[in-house]
Structure formats: structure tokens, C-alpha cells
Write a structure and sequence with these properties.
Chain B: GO terms for molecular function: ABC-type transporter activity. The complex is a heterodimer of chains A (about 280) and B (about 300). With about 280 residues, chain A is of the alpha/beta class. Chain A has eight helices and nine strands. Chain A is globular. The chains are: A alpha/beta (about 280), B mainly alpha (about 300).
Chain lengths: ~280, ~300
């Protein structure tokens, strides 16, 4: 099962890479009338009329940059990085530093067409506990959906189901809707599904650290076998000990920019010094 | 499958020289997705990839229908039942109003009404929510956007097929079985499916950006319901009926309805329907290709 079932987008072993060149990403925030076509057309019409009638003094002040009524929030600011096959990269930084956004860019969710983002290799991402799961469906049905997403055939999905069932140990809960699950159970299922295949580039957000102790141990084993098969691992976490254990390189993000980038030990020292919370985990 | 957990540090390639420096172009293998690809070809690639995932779209569409009616014993047959009641009521009233024989009018209104109400109208209104309904998925999973369009199409198609039972039963009861001519409706229905995907990509993208479009679409459809011969027949207009060809919905409806009533649809109707579809497809491809990279921020 650990053998990759799906070969879509797979590239020759050891050639996968992530190259991001001076990427800036703005989130458009729509508020007020910006969501309404009627209001936007009215506003445009009005501004055309007022511009025509009144004489302006001085230059034009644009209170709201971008489209009328939208505010742009800069999540990533001039980020450049290059990750080669064989690297295990950890992203650190406080909440809102842009870690998750960067991860989503790498997953091809944000800015899928940006010319300065080059993701080469088969990507799998564990971004959200519920990633793509339907709350109303049973765990088993969600496994089927996930398999279909990966382009599996029915016998392959049977195999996937058995594999996840034995790992997640949800027993009867696997036949109940996912909305009845506790957070821990969701993680078991989501983690189980996501780690049945070995991608070339694995992107993980920090949620996978949750779960009870017993599960953690098994999860780590399973993760190790997957990670060893991948070319590139990128994880975000606040658990510094986890990062120290898994990563060879840390990227410290601050306010959407790369603050520091280098070997785990160096960055970790600097990071700990700046936060002044020794060995926080 | 579990391999004994070896410490990852051992297997890791410890070499990383100047990580933030981009290696010279000569060392990098050709990128999988060419940076210079146009938005249009990327959108086309999205559509093609989604077609490769048709199994996923079918599963999603079916599950949507099932979940919508999961609480009831009748399930989607509720649709059949409500449609039957509506057809019966409207057939009774309008045959009186128009002074038509119920035996002639009921088969007409039964097929007309479901083609409009559960076909075109539902299809267009549902297409508005194509991407806004799938917010969580779009934000957390990498999946071609067109999968959502196929999913909505399948869902509408399945729900539509539950209501087709009504006119079929009416035809049998009234002794108006159209015969083999009915098969001519199949290519027309196939065209409808293609149009539905186009509507999903077009209205789905636009509605993700502007949230007041679904009600606007709803009111427009209401107007078209009255100016399109759905409850009334084109021949009731007499010689002015040719003006109806200005309404593309008339031709779209006609190419499916005529075979069900035992007639061959006119070439003009097919021509207009094909022309409208072509314009619609091009428009949706244009809109979708322009909004595709922004959809994740809009939903």
C-alpha cells in the first residue's frame, strides 16, 4: 500500500524542488458593498459623474487601494526561497506570520498560476483537519471520496479503506457521520487518509500534532515511513521540539517576510533568544 | 505497510548550501507547469484534469443528492411527488383558462413544466453556488475547480431524472406515447449537460465575487418563465410566434420538448440552440480563465 498507487505528476526521483522568487501575496478583503454588484456599479457611476462636474484641487487621493471597497492585506511580502530534494524544512513564526499562507501557495491553492512560483514534483498536503471531508458523510464514505480525488479505482479504494481502518482504530465510529467525531477522532481519520500515500513533496500544517499520547506514538512511526519516502517535507509548527527532531532547515517568518533562513540549530537559537521562552513547546 | 521508524535525521541529505539563493537556470530541470502558459490554456488544463476525475465528480454529485434527502423515507421521490401535484394543479387550471381539452393540454404542460422548472431554471440557479458551496474544499485541497462544476451538473441531472417520471406517467395515462421520436431528445439533453457545465463555470465564478447575483438571476428567470412558452403554447400566438426565436430559451426548450411530444424539432431551433451554447461556452471559458486564480480568495 505504501507503494504509490498514483503516478500523476510524479517526477524523476530526487529532482523535485520548490522555487519561489520574490513572491508577494495580497488577500483581498471584501467588506461593505464590495460584495454587491449593484453597489459597485452605482459607486462607479457616481464617481464618473462627480469627476466630471467638480474641479479637483491637488492630486487624487485613493483612500481604498485596489478595487473600490476592497482592502488588501499583505500576507506575504517579497518571499524568495528555494528548496531542493532531500530537505526537511520547518516554518516557524508567531500567529499570522504567513506560515500557513506560504504552505497554501506551495500546495497550489493560492496563486496557482503565479509565474514566480515553481513547484516541481507530486504534492500532497495536510493543511486542514477537515481537509475536504464532508461532515455529513461517514468516515468510510469520506475515505472513498478521498480515494476518488486521488483518481483511484474501486479495488484500490477498498485497499485504502482497510489500511486507514486498521490505523485509525475508530471501530464503529467509522460508519457514523464525521460531524459526530471528536477533534481527536477527526485527526486520526484525516491523518490516516493523508499518510497512506507517499508523495514527493509533503506539506503539513501543525494540526497533526494533536491527539492522545498513544496515537502520537503510532502517528510518528507512520509519518516517519512516509517522510523517509518523500523528497521534500515542509511543516509548520509551534512545537519547537518537533521541528528540531524533524527538520534540517528552518525558515523563520515574520510579518510575511523571511526573517531568517538556515540550519535548524542556528535559526532555533536565534528564535529562542528572541522569544525568550526557553524550550517552549 | 509500516516500515520500522528510522530517525529521519539519518536519511536526510544534510547538504544545503545557501538555501535562499536560487540556483542558476542551468541546474534546474524544466518546470512541470510552464510559467509562460496563458490563463486560457491553464483554464483548459483545469477542465481536462477535472474530466479525468469524473469518478470523483459523480460520487460527489450523487452524495449531494443523497444527503439533501437523507432525513426522509421517500428520499428524492419527494421531488417526483411535488412535481406531480404541481403539474396536476396547473394542468387543471390552465386547461380551463385556455379552453383546451385536458387530454391534449396535460401532456404538454407536464413535459414543459418539468423541463423549465426542474431543468433549465433549477440548473441555472444551482450553478450560481458552484464554488461558494465548496468553500472548505477549495481552501484546503488542491483539486481542479471544474470538478465542482461537474459535481453541480451531476446533482442537477440526477434530480432532474427523478422528475421525468411525471410526464412519462402522464403520457401513458393519456395514451400519448411519442414513440421512437422521443430518442431525438437525447442529443438535446446532452447539449443541456454541456451548457450546465458552462453555466456553472460562468455563474459560479461571477457569484463567488458578487454575492448579489443569485437573486438577480432568480428574478430574470422569473421573467423568462412568462415570456417563454412554458405554460402556454407557441401556436397560441398565431403569426407573431416567429418573434419567439429572439428568446434563446425558447429554442433550448424546444429541442428537448418537441421529441417528447412526438415531433421533430425544427432546424432553426437547433441552430439557435447550438449558437447560444457556443456563445455561452466561450463566455464561460473567458470568465473562468480570468477568475480561476482568484477563486480561492473570493469564496
Amino acid at each position: 500500500m505504501n507503494e504509490t498507487l498514483i503516478h500523476a505528476r510524479r517526477v524523476p526521483e530526487g529532482t523535485s524542488h520548490i522555487i519561489i522568487d520574490k513572491l508577494s501575496l495580497n488577500f483581498p478583503i471584501f467588506h461593505g458593498g464590495a460584495r454587491s454588484l449593484k453597489k459597485m456599479l452605482l459607486k462607479r457611476g457616481k464617481s464618473v459623474l462627480t469627476n466630471a462636474r467638480t474641479l479637483r484641487t491637488g492630486g487624487q487621493v485613493q483612500l481604498e487601494p485596489g478595487e473600490s471597497g476592497t482592502v488588501q492585506v499583505q500576507a506575504l511580502d517579497n518571499v524568495s526561497l528555494s528548496i531542493k530534494a532531500g530537505e526537511r524544512v520547518g516554518l516557524i513564526g508567531h500567529n499570522g506570520a504567513g506560515k500557513s499562507t506560504l504552505l497554501r501557495v506551495m500546495a497550489g491553492i493560492y496563486m496557482p498560476d503565479a509565474p514566480n512560483v515553481d513547484i516541481y514534483g507530486q504534492v500532497a498536503s495536510l493543511l486542514d483537519v477537515n481537509s475536504g471531508m464532508n461532515q455529513e458523510l461517514t468516515g468510510r464514505e469520506n475515505i472513498t471520496l478521498m480515494g476518488r480525488h486521488k483518481g483511484m479505482t474501486t479495488p484500490q479504494i477498498r485497499q485504502l479503506e482497510e489500511n486507514v481502518e486498521s490505523f485509525a482504530q475508530l471501530e464503529t465510529f467509522l460508519d457514523l457521520p464525521v460531524r459526530l467525531y471528536s477533534t481527536g477522532m477527526r485527526i486520526r481519520l484525516g491523518f490516516g487518509i493523508a499518510t497512506t500515500m507517499t508523495p514527493q513533496i509533503l506539506l503539513m500544517d501543525e494540526w497533526f500534532m494533536a491527539g492522545d499520547f498513544h496515537f502520537q506514538e503510532r502517528a510518528e512511526k507512520r509519518l516517519a515511513s512516509v517522510v523517509n519516502g518523500t523528497d521534500i517535507l515542509v511543516i509548520t509548527s509551534h512545537a519547537l521540539d518537533v521541528l528540531e527532531k524533524w527538520c534540517t532547515r528552518l525558515i523563520w517568518m515574520e510579518a510575511g517576510q523571511i526573517h531568517m533562513d538556515g540550519p535548524t540549530k542556528e535559526v532555533m537559537l536565534a528564535y529562542k533568544a528572541s522569544t525568550a521562552t526557553p524550550a517552549a513547546s | 505497510m509500516m516500515v520500522t521508524a528510522s530517525s529521519p535525521e539519518q536519511t536526510v541529505n544534510a547538504d544545503f548550501s545557501a538555501p535562499s539563493v536560487i540556483p542558476p537556470a542551468g541546474q534546474t530541470p524544466p518546470p512541470a507547469r510552464s510559467a509562460r502558459k496563458s490563463r486560457l490554456s491553464l483554464a483548459w488544463q483545469d477542465i481536462m484534469e477535472a474530466c479525468g476525475l469524473w469518478r470523483l465528480a459523480v460520487t460527489l454529485g450523487w452524495l449531494d443528492v443523497r444527503l439533501q434527502y437523507s432525513g426522509s423515507t421517500l428520499g428524492p421521490f419527494w421531488l417526483t411527488l411535488t412535481t406531480a401535484v404541481m403539474v396536476g394543479a396547473m394542468g387543471g387550471i390552465y386547461s380551463q383558462l385556455f379552453h383546451l381539452k385536458l387530454q391534449d393540454y396535460l401532456p404538454y404542460i407536464s413535459i414543459s413544466l418539468i423541463l423549465w422548472q426542474n431543468g433549465l431554471s433549477t440548473l441555472i440557479q444551482e450553478s450560481c453556488g458552484t464554488f461558494t458551496r465548496a468553500t472548505d474544499t477549495l481552501r484546503s485541497v488542491t483539486m481542479p475547480y471544474t470538478v465542482q462544476a461537474l459535481r453541480t451538473t451531476i446533482r442537477c441531472g440526477v434530480m432532474f431524472s427523478y422528475t421525468v417520471i411525471v410526464p412519462v406517467v402522464v403520457f401513458i395515462i393519456m395514451g400519448k406515447w411519442p414513440g421512437v421520436t422521443m430518442l431525438l431528445a437525447l442529443p438535446a439533453l446532452a447539449l443541456w449537460l454541456i451548457d450546465c457545465v458552462a453555466f456553472c463555470l460562468l455563474l459560479g465564478s461571477v457569484c463567488a465575487r458578487f454575492r448579489d447575483i443569485p437573486p438577480i438571476v432568480g428574478s430574470l428567470l422569473q421573467i423568462f418563465f412568462y415570456v417563454t412558452p412554458v405554460i402556454w403554447e407557441a401556436k397560441q400566438l398565431g403569426p407573431t410566434a416567429t418573434w419567439l426565436y429572439l428568446n434563446p430559451f425558447y429554442s433550448m426548450l424546444d429541442i428537448v420538448r418537441m421529441p417528447f411530444l412526438g415531433h421533430v424539432p425544427s432546424g432553426l431551433s437547433w441552430g439557435i440552440a447550438l449558437g447560444t451554447s457556443l456563445v455561452l461556452c466561450l463566455l464561460s471559458l473567458f470568465t473562468f480563465s480570468r477568475s480561476r486564480s482568484k477563486l480561492a480568495f473570493w469564496v
